[in-house]
Amino acid sequence: MTWFKLAFRNVFRQKKRSFLLASAIAFGMLSITLLNALTGAMATAVKTNFSTAIGGHVYITGEVISPRGYSTSLIDQTATLDQVIRSLPVPIMQVKPRSNAQVQLVNGSAVTRTRVSGIKLENEPTSFTKLRVMQGDMRALQQPGNIAIPLNRAKDLNVRLGDKVLVKGATNTGQQNLLEWTIVALFADQSSFGRSNSYASIVTVNNLLNIPADQYQQVNLVLQDLNHMATATAELNLALTREASIKPQDDDGLVGPMRRMMGSNRTLVENPWQGTQFEVTNLDDVTENVMAIVRGLDWVAKLIFVIMLVITLVGISNSYRMVLLERVAEIGNMRAMGAQANNVFRLFIYEAVILGMIGIALGLILALAGVATIESLNFADSRGPARMFTVAGHLPLMISMGSVLVSSALIMVMAMLAAYFPARGAARLDPAEALRSAT
Amino acid sequence: MSLIDFQHVHKNYPLGKTIVHALQGVSFQVQEGDFVTISGPSGSGKSTILNMVGCIDTPSAGEVIIQDTHTSTLSDRQITELRHRTLGFIFQNFNLIPVLSVYENIEFPLLLGDSRNDPFKQWPEQEKCDWINYLIAQVGLEDYAQRRPAELSGGQRQRVAIARALATKPSIVLADEPTANLDSVTGDQIIQLMREMNQTLGTTFVFSTHDPQVLDVADHVIKIRDGMIEDNYRLSERI
Ligand SMILES: Nc1ncnc2c1ncn2[C@@H]1O[C@H](COP(=O)(O)OP(=O)(O)OP(=O)(O)O)[C@@H](O)[C@H]1O
Ligand SMILES: [Mg+2]
């Protein structure tokens, strides 16, 4: 207690120097906390944006062989799949059957391309809550033959709410199909990654694709907890292997599921099969490439942090050497009075610990302020890939308790390491020499 | 039995390629309760002797015996404990801890022990407090107890140093030229104060000085020249 009090007062003895040292530590703490928050925010934003764009966390697609020997995107063993999903051991928030089609919308000479997602509205009542509906009502999609499109596409097509448009697309087996749908809602464009998306009921899209009303191409699962993603995927693969069949893991990796999700539905196969061949992917698979970039950034940030740490370490160590020189007589005096060498050693270490704590606290306060500032910035109007890293225009920064603890511990160890050699020097001072040099 | 017993003590310091013979066979005894002066010209070896009595330096040859303990047999840790328990120090340049108040500086030696059998740990808090306040009163600094050393005059600082040296109720207080940084009037007062403490508490004081006048107050005078004892006498022999 005595030594801690003494150390505390010693820290405030040379206010300017202590302030500079604490600032160096604070800067380290500030930058690593901000960098961690930033890369964390990027990861969160990427996941959020992808799961919003795709609509879920785990994706089950299927392929069946058409009469002509083509592989087509379709799940016809829907009862089996229902059963498998119901017996999954993780909590599921929503089950979203979907069918997708790439279509051309035509009005006179105006043409625009869009993907139409066929949605079972009663299964996903919350799917449109984030959509800014400008005109009309998404609930009207429940009627077959209705479509909701982005407002800017409607302008391109020169159509208004309630107008009919021609829909040109291919059936699931590849025949051209032409239908007439009614525009019942217009919403602010949410185009992710440059692709525009429109919505209709699954029955409407199935009608275009010429597949039975109760079948679908894909089921997206929304999980209660993202941590269950791997378990859910593995369990689905197991159960579907047992109850149906799973697409062999050899060929096209993500290309197949992604292609089907985007509504491109048909390829010719050499070795046909019976029934549905399922394929299960999840958000982690889909975001893998972007996440690799984020992880790379994270590593660079950590490397910079370590380099900064070492520079600070050397600086602090040198300052302590100076402190030691200034206090030679004092140390000799303490030793003469009966302080043991290890007391002197600990005094210096305590001073470093106190300085470290002040620096860490200061850095953390600055980091909190920094996070608040960055979070208040709005990037909603920015274009390009930056949007991938924002959610509703903001960087979703989060300071995680765990990483704060880890970096604090690291900085503390560094501060103690910086003080170690000067402290040992102080402890080893010969009291007679120390006292003599002061006179 | 003497409190301090020097037997043929030599001390050599290496200085570049030569060797300085700072002490060349010094022998003397100090009795308990004495007020001892070590005098001699600059460089004669006064500080060297005091450092050896104070166990902060070791002889090159010969024996230093403190309270019947041969100091050469002790480990560094034991030596430190011996210093803590039986010795008090007063320095020419005061050496107070600048970040501690007068009261805290005096209390500091009592808090230093870190061994389990540390005698000052068992001391009741109130008694400790009364003792420190008693010492503060004895050195006449009642109104300055909460001041920091930087706010005191040289004479006041040396008074704090005297109180601090006495805090652990040591058998011996060592003072290496305690008046060298003070004007002569203040210096005399400091010597006077040490003498009073020597008489009220019975603590043995050993101090060095240039000042021949000081010899009058001492019980025991040891004169040094060139690392050898020139004269060694007690003024009033006790029975
Ligand atoms: N660490 C050392 N290294 C080399 N020589 C030393 C050392 N300490 C003391 N000496 C030498 O030993 C001799 C005695 O020194 P000491 O300090 O004991 O003298 P002193 O009587 O205290 O002198 P002063 O009155 O000036 O304080 C001197 O010649 C001094 O130069
Ligand atoms: Mg001297």
What does the secondary structure layout of this molecule look like, with pairings?
The complex is a heterodimer of chains A (439) and B (239).
Chain A: H1 2-11, H2 15-54, E1 58-65, E2 70-73, H3 78-86, E3 92-107, E4 110-119, E5 133-136, E6 146-150, H4 151-157, E7 164-170, E8 176-187, E9 197-201, H5 202-209, E10 218-223, H6 229-243, E11 245-246, H7 255-261, E12 266-268, E13 277-282, H8 283-326, H9 328-337, H10 341-376, H11 401-428, H12 431-438
Parallel strand pairs in A: 4-9, 6-8, 11-13
Antiparallel strand pairs in A: 1-2, 1-10, 1-13, 2-12, 3-4, 3-7, 3-10, 5-8, 6-9, 7-8
Chain B: E1 4-15, E2 18-30, E3 35-39, H1 46-53, E4 61-66, E5 69-70, H2 76-86, E6 87-90, H3 102-107, H4 125-138, H5 154-166, E7 172-176, H6 184-201, E8 204-209, E9 220-225, E10 228-234
Parallel strand pairs in B: 3-8, 3-9, 6-7, 7-8
Antiparallel strand pairs in B: 1-2, 1-4, 4-5, 9-10
Helix pairs in contact in B: 4-5, 5-6
Magnesium ion binds next to helix 1 of chain B.
CATH architecture of chain B: 3-Layer(aba) Sandwich
Query: What is the number of helical segments of chain A per DSSP (H or I, 4+ residues)?
Result: 12
Major sheet summary line of chain A: 6 strands, mixed, barrel
Number of strands of chain B: 10
Q: Could you give the count of β-strands of chain A?
A: 13
Mean pLDDT of chain A: 87
* Overall pLDDT level of chain B: 91
The radius of gyration computed from the alpha-carbon positions of chain A, rounded to a whole number of angstroms, is 32 Å
Structural category of chain A is alpha+beta
Biggest chain pair interface: A-B, 26 and 30 residues
